[in-house]
């Protein structure tokens, strides 16, 4: 195989035994370097772990690597465990972090760890998991970190060298193999110069038909159209239904393929699949997190067949999933970041724009930005596209489970671990003091609630260190013997409530008497947790349980089919599947806690068995797919 300059440079370093961090544009070919590590690890029988930021990407890598390295690949994602002793083990970064802290011996045979999309360390919600994984990395493991372009890669590499005391080589590629050509739709005109629209503040609105007429004339298909809302993706797809992007032969082919995939994934009677058929027959589809995971997979397969010409999708489609197209379109250049809407970060823009231009097929990729001058100025559009990407910044926020695991090993020396963090490395003095205060406050709270007593982790603490993210609420309920009193229905209701996050202003539907009792017990326990966290100035506060899916999961546990339970909620069907799978994962974590009683373990096994059936069973989807 002939490698590009940056690929060969990284591979040479790897062959010399160095850890390597690679910064290169989306679509540049970073996966080839990971494949080299896997090939060499299999040859030398040393084993490799591959981590990805989201389950969808973990699943895709499992499928891809299974084809390349048959019978050598395993996957662990919390709700899926296939071939867990395999020499190449794919997992979410959370699972890897938990293994480092809870059972480091299970990683002894793995010499390499590949962190895909390592710039995710900058993610406000989950970035801390990457940082903890890198801080506590076993000494025998080498690192291959793959990242989209990050300007402070030198700082990142220096931090890793300092904490691990061994060199890490940097490989930087700034050039895309397929160059991008930018176009703008503004005032319902399309041009490749944003300056043309400087006076367009009160101009005509942009029309999607105008844009696609232009793209068609430019031979710009297939296209990925990024939107920042699920309903918007569906509405735009239907708005385009007047177009037919397929020849008669292609229409016959895609219709046959669609029906065979629906058959394979047991979706023939799904209303949501039937609603897609008229669009699919014209080469159009949508794809977002509110859809059934199996239906999303069907759409992905249609897209890779090259019969699907335009897909309206949300931004997770850009995160590592290997589905390039000739054209990428942005519905707008503003999105919701946590608590407010703001202009896109340059790094996020290129994560999506980088899907334009298929290597070996296209001479250039086309990127279209739909611009409403009343919402964003030409200057801001230029900043997003032409500024260097933002630096990666630490988002360290140690979970209670992490602190308990570390306290068990290091006792009062725990406070000497914070200076190993990227947060410490990047921060000013006052920020360092505040981060250390936060860790101290969490330890004080854990002492007050009897998770730590006389420098020892108590039985309560040993339970809590097994249930990442939901430690205090579940541990307090367990300590009061409330988990033991719940039957299989109660455990399912509680698990769904603990993981569920309602949409803004989403109303709580009517819930059963048993759900109300569990809710009352949770509210009482959570009030005590919240009061203590506020007193110690701990932020963000622990997440409260929300009982919006109680009716759904209760019906599901009683054997109702999936269509029936949809009547109990206004939550999207794909979200229900996701939350039920998360419920299975948290129940398994409770069941694996060493201090859980045999009775509780048995009830949890039964609860997870009943929840994890049909469309909820992620493992079945992977095995059959």
Largest sheet: 8 strands, mixed
Report the portion of residues in β strands.
Answer: 5-15%
CATH class of the domain at 5-172: Alpha Beta
Bulk shape:
globular
CATH superfamily of the domain at 5-172: P-loop containing nucleotide triphosphate hydrolases
* Distance from first to last alpha carbon: 29 Å
Low-confidence region ranges = none
Structural class: alpha/beta
**Can you give the mean pLDDT?**
93
Rg measurement, Å: 25 Å
Structural write-up:
Strands 4-3-5-2-6-7-1-8 form an 8-stranded mixed β-sheet, sandwiched between helices. It has a 7-stranded mixed β-sheet with strand order 10-9-17-14-11-13-12, with helices on both faces. Among the domains are: 5-172, 3-Layer(aba) Sandwich (Rossmann fold), CATH 3.40.50.300; 466-624, Orthogonal Bundle (Sec63 N-terminal domain-like fold). The longest helix has 23 residues, at 513-535. Helix 20 packs across helix 25. The model has no long low-confidence stretch (mean pLDDT 93). Strand 15 (334-337) and strand 16 (340-343) form a beta hairpin. It contains 26 helices and 19 strands. By secondary structure, it is of the alpha/beta class.
Show the helix and strand layout.
Layout: H1 5-15, E1 19-23, H2 31-44, E2 48-52, H3 55-68, E3 73-76, E4 81-82, E5 88-92, H4 93-102, E6 112-115, H5 127-135, E7 142-147, H6 153-164, E8 168-172, E9 180-186, E10 189-191, H7 208-217, E11 223-226, H8 230-239, H9 248-264, H10 271-280, E12 284-287, H11 293-304, E13 310-313, E14 327-330, E15 334-337, E16 340-343, H12 346-353, E17 365-370, H13 378-386, H14 400-410, H15 422-426, H16 429-448, E18 452-453, E19 456-457, H17 459-464, H18 471-479, H19 482-485, H20 488-499, H21 513-535, H22 550-557, H23 562-565, H24 573-592, H25 598-611, H26 618-624
Helix pairs in contact: 1-2, 4-5, 9-11, 18-21, 20-22, 20-24, 20-25, 24-25
């Amino acid at each position: 195989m002939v490698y590009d300059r940056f690929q060969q440079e990284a591979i040479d370093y790897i062959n010399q035994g160095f850890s390597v961090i690679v910064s290169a544009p989306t679509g540049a070919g970073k996966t080839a370097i990971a494949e080299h590590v896997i090939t060499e690890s299999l040859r030398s029988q040393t084993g490799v772990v591959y981590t990805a930021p989201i389950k969808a990407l973990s699943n895709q890598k499992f499928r891809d690597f299974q084809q390349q390295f048959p019978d050598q690949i395993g996957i662990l994602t919390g709700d899926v465990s296939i071939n867990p002793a395999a020499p190449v083990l794919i997992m979410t970064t959370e699972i890897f972090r938990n293994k480092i802290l809870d059972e480091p011996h299970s990683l002894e045979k793995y010499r390499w760890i590949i962190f895909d999309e390592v710039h995710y360390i900058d993610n406000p919600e989950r970035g801390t998991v990457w940082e903890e994984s890198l801080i506590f990395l076993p000494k025998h493991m080498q690192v291959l970190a793959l990242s989209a372009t990050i300007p402070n890669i030198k700082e990142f590499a220096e931090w890793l060298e300092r904490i691990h005391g061994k060199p890490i080589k940097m490989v930087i590629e700034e050039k895309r193999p397929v160059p991008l050509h930018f176009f703008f739709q503004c005032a319902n005109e399309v041009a490749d110069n944003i300056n043309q629209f400087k006076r367009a503040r009160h101009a005509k609105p942009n029309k999607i038909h105008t844009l696609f007429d232009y793209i068609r004339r430019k031979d710009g298909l297939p296209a990925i159209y990024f939107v920042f809302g699920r309903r918007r993706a569906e509405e735009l797809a239907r708005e385009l239904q007047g177009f037919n992007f397929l020849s008669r032969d292609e229409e016959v082919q895609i219709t046959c393929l669609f029906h065979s995939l629906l058959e394979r994934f047991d979706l023939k009677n799904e209303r949501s699949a039937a609603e897609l058929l008229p669009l699919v027959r014209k080469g159009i589809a949508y794809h977002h997190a509110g859809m059934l995971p199996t239906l999303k997979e069907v759409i992905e397969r249609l897209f890779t067949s090259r019969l699907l010409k335009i897909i309206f999708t949300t931004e997770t489609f850009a995160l590592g999933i290997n589905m390039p197209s000739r054209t990428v379109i942005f519905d707008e250049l503003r999105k919701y970041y946590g608590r407010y809407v703001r202009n896109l970060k340059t790094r996020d823009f290129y994560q999506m724009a980088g899907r334009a231009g298929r290597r070996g097929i296209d001479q250039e990729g086309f990127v279209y930005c739909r611009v409403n001058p009343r919402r964003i100025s030409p200057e801001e559009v230029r900043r997003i596209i032409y500024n260097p990407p933002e630096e990666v910044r630490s988002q360290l926020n140690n979970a209670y489970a992490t602190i308990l695991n570390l306290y068990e090993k290091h006792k009062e020396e725990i406070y000497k671990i914070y200076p190993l963090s990227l947060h410490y490395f990047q921060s000013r003095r006052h920020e360092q003091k505040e981060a250390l205060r936060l860790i101290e406050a969490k330890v004080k709270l854990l002492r007050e609630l009897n998770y730590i007593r006389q420098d020892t982790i108590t039985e309560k603490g040993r339970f809590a260190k097994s249930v990442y993210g939901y430690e205090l609420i579940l541990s307090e309920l367990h300590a009061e013997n409330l988990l033991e009193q719940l039957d299989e229905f109660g455990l399912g209701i509680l698990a769904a409530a603990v993981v569920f996050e309602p949409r803004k202003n989403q109303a709580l539907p009517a819930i059963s008497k048993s759900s109300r009792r569990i809710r009352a017990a949770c509210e009482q326990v959570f009030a005590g947790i919240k009061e203590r966290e506020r007193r110690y100035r701990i932020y963000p506060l622990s997440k409260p349980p929300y009982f919006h899916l109680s009716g759904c999961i209760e019906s599901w546990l009683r054997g109702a089919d999936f269509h029936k339970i949809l009547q109990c909620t206004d939550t999207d069907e794909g979200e229900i599947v996701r939350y039920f799978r998360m419920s299975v994962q948290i129940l398994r974590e409770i069941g694996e806690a060493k201090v859980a009683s045999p009775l509780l373990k048995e009830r949890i096994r039964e609860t997870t068995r009943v929840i994890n059936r049909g469309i909820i069973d992620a493992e079945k989807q992977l095995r059959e797919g």
